[in-house]
Amino acid sequence: MDLLIHFGGLLLAFASVSIGSYGLMRQLALFGLWPIEAREGRSMYSEAAHRLGVIAAEHGWFGPLREHVARDLVRARLVSLNADDLVGKSMLDAILAGIAAWLVTIFVGGVPYNIIPALVAGAIVFRLPGWSLRGKADRRILLITRRLPYSLEVVVLATESGAGFDEALEVLVREDPKNPLHEEFDQVLRDQALGLTRQEALQAMRERVGTEDMTALVMALDIAENLGTPLADTLKKQAESIRISRLQRAERMAREAGPKMAVPNTMIMVANVLLILAPFLPKLSLGGI
Q1: What is the distance, to the nearest Å, from the Cα of residue 287 to the centroid of all Cα atoms in its chain?
Q2: What distances in angstroms separate CA 83 from CA 11, 48, 62, 228, 249, one per listed residue?
Q3: Containing H/E element for 135?
Q4: Helix (H) and strand (E) counts for the chain?
Q5: Are 169 and 152 contacting, i.e. CB atoms less than 8 angstroms apart?
Q6: How many Cα atoms are found within 13 Å in the side-chain-facing hemisphere of 190?
Q7: How far is Cα 257 from Cα 250, in angstroms, rounded to an integer?
Q8: Cys-Cys with 97: which of 113, 125, 147, 284 at CB 3.0–4.6 Å?
């Protein structure tokens, strides 16, 4: 009789697992997550992340994050990725990190229903791809900002030598095609080759970069083209203006650095005093010295 009971229990467990697995696989298939067949040039992980991102987009999940990711992808010039890929990667990384944290919690003696470490780990890991992308975009924009006045001087020299504005940009691109600023200028030339006017191509560059210096440069070029003034004079003034604005920003940051460092400096001083007085605290508490 006991043997029949055990055998019946095994059959019931097997049936429950099979039915549950079938329901899970069916639901995953309805969501588009099963089966996962990697496309050419993509790994299984990348394909799973992409499908998760597509599902999130279809249901309207993480709308603000998707907007920020799409903007940062343009600023970082990561043309091989899209918002679905990165949002899906964030979701998949968060799920895997949550499962790993939950297993570690059980392994160290925690109760299975304690999911707080898993939630915290998932929430932190979910933000990591977005933070990494934001850092890449900011570093690229910083390189563009630093390079802009020097590249404008080269354009001024070329235009004063008789070259046109587009020809001067071509000279820059040929000199250093991997420079982020020159990549943007190359995109301007490509946009014009595809039928956009110079003003439209420059406006597209301004929207991609989004800095104050680039906005001022594009506005000055638009005004110069509308009024028919020489581009060399306009570019020379813009290069000087950008240098002055950079100097002013540096001075402002230097002025703001003092108050920001006051609290950390105070904490360091207090820690040093406590470290010096630590050996004498027990005697002071006993009334010695």
Answers
A1: 58
A2: 46, 14, 11, 41, 33
A3: helix 116-160
A4: 11, 0
A5: no
A6: 9
A7: 10
A8: 125
For 72, residues 6+ apart whose C-beta sits below 8 A from its C-beta are: 130, 133, 134, 136, 137
- DSSP symbols for 188-199: HHHHHHTT--HH
Residue with tokens 């587009």: 166
Length of the chain: 289
Contacts of 21 (CB under 8 A, 6+ apart): none
Cα–Cα distance, 236 to 223 (Å, whole number)? 15
CA 141-41-58 angle, to 5 degrees, is 70
The tokens for 94 are 């968060």
> pLDDT tens digit string along 150-166?
888 888 888 888 888 88
Mean pLDDT confidence for 50-59: 86
- Please give the average per-residue pLDDT across 253-258, as a whole number: 70
**Tens digits of per-residue pLDDT, 267-287?**
777 777 777 766 766 665 555
* pTM, 2 dp: 0.72
What are the φ and ψ backbone dihedral angles of 28, each rounded to 5 degrees? Answer: -65, -40
Q: Which domains does the chain have, with CATH numbers?
A: 31-141 (no CATH), 144-245 (1.20.81)
